[in-house]
Design brief:
By secondary structure, the protein is of the alpha/beta class. It is 44% helix and 13% strand. It folds into three domains: 69 residues, no CATH class; 189 residues, Rossmann fold, CATH 3.40.50.450; 64 residues, Winged helix-like DNA-binding domain superfamily/Winged helix DNA-binding domain (Arc Repressor Mutant, subunit A), CATH 1.10.10. The strands form two sheets. It has a nine-stranded mixed beta sheet, sandwiched between helices. α4 crosses α16 and α7 runs parallel beside α8.
Length: 372
Amino acid sequence: MNQQQIDWLRLSLSENVGPATFRQLISYFGSASEALLHIDELARHGGKRSIKVASEKQAEAQINRAEKVGAEILLSSDSDYPFLLKQIKDAPPVLFVLGHKGLLTQNAVAIVGTRNASLNGKNIARFLAAGLIEQNYSVVSGMAKGIDAAAHTGALASGVVNESGTVAVLGTPVDEIYPQENTDLYNQIKERGCLVSELPFGTPLVPQNFPRRNRIISGLSKGVVVIEANLKSGSLITAREAANQGRDVFAVPGFPMDPRSAGPNALIQDGATLVQSAKDVVDTLSAEKTFHLEEMLEPKNYKLDFHSIEANLESVRQKVLENLSAEPVEVDALVRATESTMQEVNVVLVELELAGRLERHYGNRVSLVYGG
């Protein structure tokens, strides 16, 4: 087994190591193996006596399970990890992939919407998906019933494999099917498309994993199309993630008296591009020559010398805690309020997250977890 892969998995599986903190740890220490030597110490600074660091046996179990089900494990340091996804601040450090992984590097558009979709809504999703495939765009969605399932079905109906196709981002481990009614769809995507999850094998089914995967749906895509969604729909979370990631947001307008039209109509009022066909999406994306994205993470270039800032950290810890509460605040605002450097504040935030005392939110915001 590859030792780098084992160490990368160990770090990602360790207690309280979320995607953003994982990225910071790699940036600071240059490698997963080095970071593993320090996370217990960082957690103690954050207020927790010790944390559970994943063992090599746990990492090897994930690798063995992947081999058994025919899945591939992609690390965010791998050259074939999806480029667009790598640019988001909370990119998954590990992806578990079943099917044609080449689809993850193709131009893609996400189509999302309500589970309780109308017949017209599902027809529109299939129509748009088929049109995007014809224009050599892959279609990304979340394999939920309703609009998601219709989008995948429309993409699969094109019969195109490898050059463009459909990608399903799951809120379960990649070898588990949810909902069960989509078993046939799951098997078709596994054979002709691509199934992706950030969740390790054996992760239990919990509701919060489904909103979390929305950032991956938008992160893999150049734009997100919303079809039928009420104002509290998870699809609007995906649209919000897309906007924060610098992606285009599109919406299909609907009948004003239908609650399922409230989400797309509100997005259009807020500036989303109105969509009637795949051509509307493709024309908008084609007009944009470049994406203004962060530079790719190269851990060896970001290694931090903790000794250079250690002298200031005690006072920074106190200032950060004084300015944090249960209400999310932007990290940039926290840096200004504490009159500290971004580097110093980020170290303290990593310490607090490892200690289970910090929660990260979309838009690079953080809040304090009381009782953590």
